[in-house]
Design goal:
alpha+beta, 2 helices, 4 strands, 29% helix, 48% strand
């Protein structure tokens, strides 16, 4: 329930921000935040079809957070870093820890000036820190 309230609050803030008429960079950042929120909803609802490619190693997700590293309105890209904490399937068996993934999101600006994701996210880097083996 706490996660659902957080997501609803985040979507409300994003919706209010877009209503105020922001610049291209801010509007693109808002579109990226919506995409991040959509992924969080997909994790909470166990909608594997809405998850990014390459996340099939996640067995149990305890938390997810994301940070926007760079917004480039000239070419419609946003670079983001995601931290996934939970249990993961590895060649050594199931392990607890944090998976860090950096992605580039591609957007296209529509006639109304709104940004929509135009291509699947592109994974730039991936790193994992394991705490322990999960039994």
């Amino acid at each position: 329930m706490k996660r659902a309230a957080t997501i609803v609050a985040m979507l409300f803030v994003v919706g209010c921000a877009t209503h105020g008429g922001l610049g291209a960079g801010d509007a693109l950042r808002t579109a990226a935040l919506r995409q991040i929120g959509s992924e969080q909803v997909a994790w909470l609802s166990h909608d594997t079809s809405a998850l990014p490619v390459g996340m099939d190693s996640v067995v149990t997700l305890k938390s997810m957070r994301a940070y926007i590293d760079d917004v480039n309105a000239a070419n419609g890209t946003v670079t983001t870093t995601y931290w996934y904490t939970g249990t993961f399937s590895t060649p050594e068996g199931q392990r607890d820890g944090t998976l860090t993934v950096q992605r580039r999101l591609h957007f296209q600006r529509g006639d109304a000036g709104t940004w929509k994701q135009s291509a699947p996210s592109e994974e730039i880097a991936r790193n994992a820190q394991w705490i322990s083996s999960s039994s």
